[in-house]
Amino acid sequence: MGSLQEHTILVQKVCEIYDKISKLETLKPSKDVDTLFTQLVLTCIPPSSIIISNLPNNIQEIRSKLIKLCGEAEGHLEAHFSTLLASYTNPLDHLEVFPYYTNYLKLSRAEYDILIRHGSAQTGPPKRIAFVGSGPLPLTSIVLASYHLKETTFHNYDINPLANTMASRLVTTDPDLSQRMIFHTSDILDVTDELKEYDVVFMAALVGMDVEEKVKVVQHLEKYMAPSSILMLRSAHGARAFLYPVVDPQDLQGFEVLSVFHPVDDVINSVVIARKNIPITSNINHHHHHHDQLESGSIMPSSCKYCEFQMFNNPLTQRSMIEELGIDD
Known about the structure:
Layout: H1 4-22, H2 31-44, H3 57-86, H4 101-119, E1 128-132, H5 139-148, E2 153-158, H6 161-171, H7 177-180, E3 181-185, E4 200-203, H8 211-224, E5 230-235, E6 255-263, E7 270-276, E8 285-290, H9 308-312, E9 321-326
Parallel strand pairs: 1-2, 1-4, 2-3, 4-5
Antiparallel strand pairs: 5-7, 6-7, 6-9, 8-9
């Protein structure tokens, strides 16, 4: 999709949906909210050559507002299901009640594979991971700790004390995760020397709602993370940048970008993995992998909770593909 006319139609559709979303009285889960965000995701899913940064200022402003609305809606959805899960005696036995739990299973498997392939090949599985922006329903940490990194301690950082209270209730009754899942109520910009203790730092998609905020967080992490530690970020590409902020690898000063994955199927977020304080090399090759050749399966959306619909009603007929920009070992 490369023509000016197609880009114009795309932008017009996104603006129409934004107009409807912005008029909603609440973004808490409801039929209207779910329908509009599903429409938005389906509009932004098809691979597009549109370059968001080239759009006029008024469209940039709408995009910025739309990303904030997406973040607010996701926060409400996570809080709703975190509260529901906490009503069970053993919340972790009922994670499947969250309608997009299977997305997290696939995402976490994919990110684990990326991490082990690029970040832990020589050092082995990380002992301590920090997850920045964990929220009231920290499914990435829970799934990674439960299925993939069973000896790793997860330190979850969120600026919202209520979110951490809700999240901690989910693991309190589990004898294993209650010991390996730790919650910190902090602005990550106030966390300094502790960052040196982590082998890997995950940065959620909605930490830093615009380029300036995200770069500020990255610069802070670069200042305090340990040499050779790993930074994993979630980004967006093409029309998906209407849903999430974009991480430009050029903004990761002080890090060597090891790999960037841009999904071109019905998956939302790109995944960026970088290592601190390794000189950037120019030995970069482009690889293309068909979806069914990846052991990890599809990289599923990290934050988007409105994607279940198009997983089973995918309007795209082309085969799923992930573009990898990586450095050969």
